[in-house]
Design goal:
10 strands, six-stranded parallel beta sheet, 425 residues, elongated, single chain, alpha/beta, four-stranded antiparallel beta sheet
Length: 425
């Protein structure tokens, strides 16, 4: 048995690579199914603005190679130099750190927990029992870290950090005008941060006018369509882009005529989407200051404050929970062996009792039941010590050797047991 994760993140790959390896919600279930079918009992795909990861259970080298091949084909060049692979305890620890916000670009960010939940929900048919339990516990660990530490205090989200960047450019944002492209969760948080900072006019642009109007009404903004958005580049001070488009939606040729009307006033564009929403050529227009999500790292470096002091306690919580999961995970093989052994012994017991009863035809129903009861009691007595020692082995690292010995000595059906292990919790 094994658990592994392969992926790329903001720690190993620039945005130019990450955006090409990002999977949309519509693509994620198919990728997970392909990963599972390549070999193994489960797969979950986690794709966010800062990482694309595939978690695998019981996957061999062929499955891992198939995933790197898939990434290579999408990237057009070898992806492995930009990635990483972790196995077993390290893979579990990695997911727990991700869910807790410890591996995020913005330490303690609040959005990642919802993204982990979304990944599990999207790929649940391919997850299998082990990864389903792992992701459920990862969400629990993320909650524990946030409730027992102050890791999430302060600017702990991409939208809040992007607005902090706008403050560094303009100072106070009161009276400024802003345009938000997109109506998803990130765009909604950005709009809330902007209006909370006193932005005078907040415009929400979305292809779905109804969705844009609903969000604008809720947060005190004004909804406009995409066609009307480009002309607003002549008047707004801040543009925040967070759509789910697979390609750039803000092109230099579309906004250049309106930027030219600004009379030298600076325009801050915050592109917090992956893949990026803004063509890099837009940043070459006069007095346009374009920042993507990787530029936020420098902004938040000086605002970590007390959150960094919470890291040791968060790591202690995670270490304890990793061991909790690993104890359960190692014990699954032992439980399968115990079940197979009991089924084999029960089969032997039934056969022997049936033969004995046929030779003792004079016994009445009550006596026959006494024979049944005696045979079950003897079987349970004989198996009790072995069962206790097998369960104990799951806690000292010897479970594999003992389980293999029991399979050999009692001629248990290894193939059948493996199937049971994959299908049970």
């Amino acid at each position: 048995m094994s658990i592994s994760v392969i992926g790329v993140s903001h720690r190993t790959a620039p945005i130019e690579i990450r955006e090409r390896l990002a999977w949309t919600d519509a693509e994620v279930p198919e990728v997970a199914a392909r990963a599972r079918d390549a070999g193994g009992s489960g797969a979950v795909v986690l794709s966010t603005c800062n990482r694309t990861e595939v978690y695998l259970c019981d996957a061999g080298p062929d499955a891992v190679a198939a995933l790197w091949d898939l990434a290579d084909a999408r990237l057009g060049t070898p992806a492995e130099p930009y990635g990483y692979m972790r196995q077993d305890r390290d893979a579990v620890r990695h997911l727990y750190r991700v869910a807790a916000g410890l591996d995020s670009m913005i330490l303690g960010e609040s959005q990642i927990q919802g993204q982990v939940r979304r990944a599990w929900e999207l790929t649940r048919p391919s997850a299998g029992p082990v990864l389903s339990r792992l992701f459920q516990l990862a969400l629990r660990v993320g909650g524990l870290v946030r409730s027992r530490t102050t890791l999430g205090a302060g600017a702990a989200s991409v939208p809040s950090a992007s607005v902090e960047l706008a403050r560094k450019i303009f100072g106070a944002l009161g009276g400024r005008q802003a345009l938000v492209l997109g109506t998803g969760e990130v765009a909604e948080l950005a709009l809330a941060c902007l209006t909370g900072d006193g932005v005078k006019t907040a415009l929400v642009a979305h292809r779905n006018r109804e969705r844009g109007a609903e969000l604008a009404a809720r947060l005190g903004g004004q909804a406009i369509g995409y066609d009307a958005a480009w002309s607003r580049f002549a008047e707004v001070d801040i543009v925040v882009c967070s759509t789910a488009a697979p390609h750039a939606v803000v092109r230099a040729h579309a906004v250049a005529p309106f930027v030219a009307r600004r009379d030298g006033r600076p325009l801050c564009i915050l592109d917090i989407a992956v893949p990026r929403d803004v063509d890099p050529d837009v940043g070459r227009l006069e007095n346009v200051f374009l920042y993507d999500i990787d530029d936020l790292q420098g902004v938040v470096a000086g605002t970590l404050g007390s959150r960094q002091r919470e890291i040791p306690e968060a790591e202690r919580i995670i270490s304890r929970e990793v061991e909790f999961f690993w104890e359960w995970y190692r014990g699954r093989g032992v439980v399968t062996t115990i079940r197979a052994l009991r089924e084999r012994m029960e089969s032997v017991r039934r056969d022997q009792v049936a033969r004995t009863i046929r030779r003792l035809e004079h016994l009445g129903p009550e006596d026959r039941e006494r024979v049944e009861h005696l045979s079950r009691a003897l079987m349970n007595k004989f198996l009790h010590g072995l069962t206790v020692r097998l369960r104990g082995a799951a806690g000292n690292g010897n479970e594999t050797q003992l389980a293999d010995a029991v399979h050999y000595l009692f001629d248990l059906d290894v193939a059948g047991d493996a199937t049971d292990a994959q299908g049970s919790e």
